[in-house]
Amino acid sequence: MLRSQFWLVFLILGVRVASQDAATAFDVVLRGGQVIDGTGAPARRADVGVRGGRIVEVGTIGAEAPATRMFDATGLTLSPGFIDVHAHADEDAARLSTADNFVRMGVTTIITGNCGGSVPVLKAHFERLERDGISLNYGSLIGHGTIRTGVMRTVPRAPTPEELEKMKQRVDAAMRDGAFGMSTGLIYVPGTYAATEELIELSKVVAAHGGVYASHMRDEAKGVLDSIEEALRIGREAGCHVHLSHLKASGKSVWGKGDDIVAAIAAARASGARVTGDQYLYTASSTGLEVLFPSKELSVGRAPFGKRLREDAEFAGAMAEAVLHNAKEAGFDDLAYCQIANAPNHPEFNGKRIPDAARALLSRDDARAQADAACRLISDADGKRVSMIYHKMSEDDVERILRAPFVSVASDAGIRTPDGDDRPHPRGSGNNVRVLGRYVRERQVVPIELAVLKMTSLPAAIFGIEHRGRIAVGCHADLVAFDAAKVADTATYDDGRGEPVGVAYVLVNGVLVVEHGKHTGAKPGHVLRHTKR
Predict the structure, then answer these.
(1) CB of 517 within 8 A of CB of 503?
(2) For the chain, which has fewer Cβ within 10 Å, the N-terminal or C-terminal residue?
(3) Residues 6+ apart with CB under 8 A from 184
(4) Are the C-beta atoms of 185 and 175 separated by less than 8 Å?
(5) Please, are residues 205 and 168 in contact by the beta-carbon 8 Å criterion?
(6) Neighbouring-strand partners of residue 139
(7) Total-model pTM
(8) N-term to C-term CA, the chain
(9) What stretches of 167-226 adopt beta strand conformation (E)?
């Protein structure tokens, strides 16, 4: 009897000891790194322990502590995974689910659906990503342009009361499905046709769910301050947080206005407005060639517009003059600032400037020939988008905006294939590491702690992304280990796919996704759904 009781006690104690050992084991330990926790606090040496996808210890972890994987982070900086709240992944997230270009530069979470364009029905899209897997965490806005097109196509007029009600219902459904808010692209069709009052009414629905109004504003050049005021009015009258996308002073005519942009937002914040912004760290933007043309002519769609350019010489001439007028308004005498990223049916021009295309197509490169070449590229694209890079900003303005504490870092990029004939903007492969290499280490525009905050806890706070963006016990284990002395971007305007250097490890939800700069193939990302704040 005593013998059996002894063995029973032994077994019970043995189970308890085993349970305690299992409870104290780590899935991953990163030992000896300089931790920048995302809050702006100074770097400190600490070990980070991960279990079950969460950070469970930050401090000193004994060498004898059991861990499935142990990484020596001596000489490396540990930060929270970077959060990019202005991505354009959408449908590509299912097709290119490893998101290599993002995770290799330390991005562990993206918010897509920006500039007014998104997947129209988020619920099914989210379920597909959860079923098939994705390498990073994924959230989305609902695009105003997508909603508007679904209800009233691309007609250049105000919605009827019935159409507006349908749009509000669709915004409400998207918010219930987990959208983080609504985005607008007010230089694009059909967003450019929307009056401020329409956007206020739809943003009231967003506000009811505690979401964000994120806007590619109506003008980023001469009218940039008026556009900021329009966005502030929308937020004020709708009662929601306003987030201004990819802040910039676009065009020579407004170079030096970076301080005015920052001051206008700072003044609004001081008066109680909930307003923030983001930026990418380059002096060139990227979008379609169609933005050089009058928006009222684009409502017919790309293919019919291109067909008319091809068949109506008088119309094509008027459009060429409009393109030159647009350039002059931005402070340029011709289109030499326009670089071709992808010209459907003309891959030989990818990476070239518009004057190069004019010489090849028309045997001239004067300003009018350049505008005629722009029309030709549109008409020859057969309804597909001609993607461009516009060299329009000044380095001084980029740095002025970066210093603002309420501006986060975001790429304005999509998920990329590893190769192709196109020449995409380098921001999609280098934005985050460019901040750390060029603007922290080389130019010393901001300290590294503030730079990390702008890429982690600030975007998390703006969009209400809970338990991410900080290295703290209980947070999701989204982590980046990089060499602060070497981290840099190699992507250029000629080779936009150049891989970053200096990023050693990237973990998403405690799973290693990047090891020594290479993707592991893991897909541990979560679909993030907004909940009312």
Answers:
(1) yes
(2) N
(3) 115, 116, 144, 145, 191, 194, 199, 213, 214, 215, 216
(4) no
(5) yes
(6) 111
(7) 0.94
(8) 61
(9) 181-185, 212-216
pLDDT at residue 12, rounded to an integer = 33
Q: Cis (ω within 30 of 0) for the bond into 294? A: no
User: Which residue in this structure is represented by tokens 């700069």?
Assistant: 517
- Name the nearest CA neighbour of 450 among 407, 514, 509: 407
User: What three-state secondary structure class fits 44?
Assistant: strand
Closest to 493 in 3D by CA, of 347, 334, 286: 286
Other beta carbons within 10 Å of 262: 21
Per-10-residue mean pLDDT, the chain, length 533: 37 34 78 98 98 98 94 97 98 97 98 98 98 98 98 97 98 98 98 98 98 98 98 98 98 97 98 98 98 96 96 98 97 97 98 98 98 98 97 98 98 95 97 98 98 98 98 98 98 97 98 96 98 76
Q: In this structure, what token pair is assigned to residue 29?
A: 């330990």
* The pLDDT value given to residue 24: 64
Specify whether the CB–CB gap between 42 and 66 falls below 8 A: no
Neighbours of 266 (CB within 10 A): 14
Nearest one of 520, 527, 286, 294 to 423, comparing CA atoms = 286
d(CA 154, CA 18): 65
Packing angle between helix 144-152 and helix 161-177, nearest 10 degrees?
130
Q: List helix spans (H) across 96-137.
A: 100-103, 122-132
Kindly give, in sequence order, each residue whose CB lies less than 8 Å from that of residue 33, ignoring residues fewer than 6 positions away. 45, 46, 47, 48, 73, 74, 76, 77, 78, 481
pLDDT (0 to 100) of residue 14 = 39
For residue 191, give the DSSP letter: G
Contacts of 285 (CB under 8 A, 6+ apart): 246, 248, 250, 389, 390, 392, 393, 412, 425
Q: 411 near 86, Cβ under 8 Å?
A: yes
Distance CA 495, CA 512 (A): 28
CB 298 within 8 A of CB 305: yes
Assess contact for 108 and 83: CB atoms under 8 A.
yes
Do β-strands 387-391 and 479-482 pair in parallel, antiparallel, or remain unpaired?
A: unpaired
State residue 102 phi and psi, 5-degree precision: -75, -55
Structure tokens belonging to residue 207: 């506000």
Which structure tokens are listed for 328? 């002059």
What distance in Å separates the CA atoms of residue 99 and residue 523, rounded to the nearest whole number?
A: 10
Instruction: Retrieve residue 286's tokens.
Output: 């990227």
The sign of the CA dihedral 323, 377, 143, 263 is: negative
Spatial contact of 438 and 122, defined as CB atoms under 8 Å apart: no
Which residues contact residue 495 at a Cβ distance below 8 angstroms, ignoring those fewer than 6 apart? 423, 426
Residue type at position 457: S
